[in-house]
Amino acid sequence: MYRLLIADHNTQEREGLEWLITRIMPGTFELIHEVSVSATVQQAATCEPDVILMNFTLSEREDLELLEQIRHVSPRSKTVVVKHIMKEHLITGMQRIVQELDQEHMKRVEEKQQQEGIFPLIPLMENQLALLFMMEKTCDQMIEKFSRLLQVDIDAGYAVTVAFPQVEGISPTENHLRLGRFYDDVRNFMKMLGPCIVSPLMNRYMNVFFVFERNSSCTRHAAACQTERLVRWLDHIYGTKVTLGIGLLMHTKDVLRQSYRQAAIAAAYGEAQSKSVAAFEEVQKRASEQNTQWLKRDTPIDFSLRPEMQLKWEELELRRVQEIGALMEQAIGYVEEQGDQGADVSKVAQYLRLESDLFSAIFHEASGKPFEEYVTKPRR
To answer: GO MF terms on file (predicted)?
Structure first.
């Protein structure tokens, strides 16, 4: 979420702005309110909000002076003087600002990844957990195992199927590179939107599973708005028309399995209808009104991916075993090199660029014993 500071003397006007923003862009902003000029400047300095909406009754000169003060204390904030702006123009302007914020955030993510790198085991296990939600026959114990390793609590959530457009007249290598670039960017963008598990890219599809605690305030409208942000961003950056299918927000044990099939149906429907975003509720409504077969058949997307899922799982599992082996070698080598100082699990995890809990869980799974037991027992 981005921080939005709404600054207005008038309570009714302030609440009206909040209502408008949350209705048009739900789940996008964490809202902060201020009622005076001095408090607005102080809040800008303290919180450094991403966006400031000001609606004070000031002269033009006073507005400019206030803008200058805010720029001085919070140079990254995007400040908008609301008065005299029509509602339609304000909405358009805020959508453009969010798009700019998204682009800036993605650039920072890319730079950080280039500097720090990502330990490959984490996205590998994410891919595997996502596949478990997609495959017809899976073991609940496996889902629990990977959820525990990734420290993911799945009480509620929904699935999104992303269908990249087919492009004719390019080589398989060019297409692979093109889809790989889209996949990485979509993955990073979805991670920005909220906690999620991302599938591998298969054919020209990927699936994203957003997960929440049971008491989460996420709504269907917010989910649709978030996916529309992705569509606008991809269109702006690449000129790429993707289709997104959204499954129902579920609160059941098989939450993500059910939502995945719904998302795949919605994406197939969206492609058939040339829609950029299609929600499963829309498919249900259309099927009811026109007695279509959309809900009574295998979706083309799910059907086309099934033969590939098991092969992809085996490929990922082999890579996971190899990565765990490499991690264990690095961890044990570090412990041996550091002696007593290497017995601190947090230091070993930091050395491997992993969270301590994740490293402990992986070490226990691979060695059959807790890390603490390994370092306290005599070793030859």
So the answer is: DNA-binding transcription factor activity; sequence-specific DNA binding
